[in-house]
Design goal:
With 247 residues, the protein is of the alpha/beta class. Helix content is 36%, strand content 17%. The protein has a single domain, classed as 3-Layer(aba) Sandwich (Rossmann fold). It contains 8 helices and 8 strands. α1 packs across α3, α3 packs parallel to α4 and α6 packs parallel to α7. The termini are close together.
Length: 247
């Protein structure tokens, strides 16, 4: 089943990409918008429930603000909360995030299991970034927040990493931007390369389901095909969007 959750004000909810910590709305409003999205995901069968710890989320956000170097990001506060909450609810033992740039998207996912926002223990949380300089910065950022080493960033091509990954992937987060005309079309390459590693019930998330819907069309057609995926929800909390699908 393919559905959409659309926040009533998504077209007016805008961030300055170079000011990642700017407060865009009262926290209660942000929590309420994300709660509606989580309810929609729950009704679609992607999530088992909608509960996560708001205090831990606050601690996670504060740590990222204090410890991360973020030159720019398109992850809005609503998206940061949504990614954290989905990971806190799904509790993936193994999570891979593809195309993590400075690590902000990666830690929004991994922060549910490491650092002050941790609410469960994961086995392996891997961020993959193809540009070595960016991967090194992302790894530096992550190391300041996670002393355990469970979350780490690898300088590599995400397609290759998922092909060679030796165990099931419980949650796959896609945010890579392929070279040349491939652009966000690379999501489908990564998903297909990971296909044999995604067990039933695994969750796949794709950033930019709204502002890159054109280049993502073949990917979106695939995850919204009920013969291939159990459910898929286009979560539109902001102008970027997140497609959340379940195998
Ligand atoms: C647009 S950025 C993601 C930024 C993120 N949405 C944010 O707001 O913080 C996409 C990243 O994917 C990386 N990338 C592109 N192709 C990749 C691949 N095949 N494997 C891993 N990373 C890749 C790029 O180098 C870039 O840093």
């Amino acid at each position: 089943m393919a559905t959409t959750y659309c926040a009533p004000d998504w077209q007016h909810y805008r961030m300055d990409y170079r000011n990642p910590h700017q407060v865009l709305e009262p926290e209660e409003r942000e929590i309420a918008m994300v709660a509606e999205a989580l309810t929609c995901l729950c009704e679609a069968g992607v999530l088992p429930h909608t509960c996560y710890d708001h205090e831990k989320m606050r601690a996670h956000r504060q740590a990222v603000r204090e410890l991360f170097e973020i030159p720019w990001t398109a992850i809005t506060p609503r998206m940061q909360r949504l990614l954290y909450a989905i990971n806190a609810i799904v509790q993936p033992q193994c999570m891979i995030a593809a195309g993590v740039f400075c690590g902000n998207t990666f830690i929004a996912n991994a922060g549910a299991a490491v650092g002050p926002g941790a609410c469960y223990t994961a086995r392996e949380l891997l961020g993959v970034e193809i540009i070595p300089k960016e991967a090194a910065r992302a790894e530096r950022n992550v190391r300041r927040l996670d002393r355990s080493g469970v979350a780490r960033v690898l300088a590599a091509d995400a397609v290759q990493v998922v092909v060679e990954f030796p165990q099931p992937i419980d949650l796959l987060y896609l945010d890579a931007d392929g070279a040349g005309s491939r652009g966000k079309g690379i999501y489908l390459d990564i998903l297909e390369a990971a296909s044999g590693k995604l067990p039933p019930g695994s969750v796949i998330m794709a950033h930019n389901s709204v502002n890159a819907a054109g280049s993502l069309a073949p990917y979106l057609d695939y995850v919204r095909d009920p013969t291939c995926f159990r459910a898929s929800v286009n979560v539109i909390l902001d102008g970027e969007g997140l497609e959340v699908s379940m195998r």
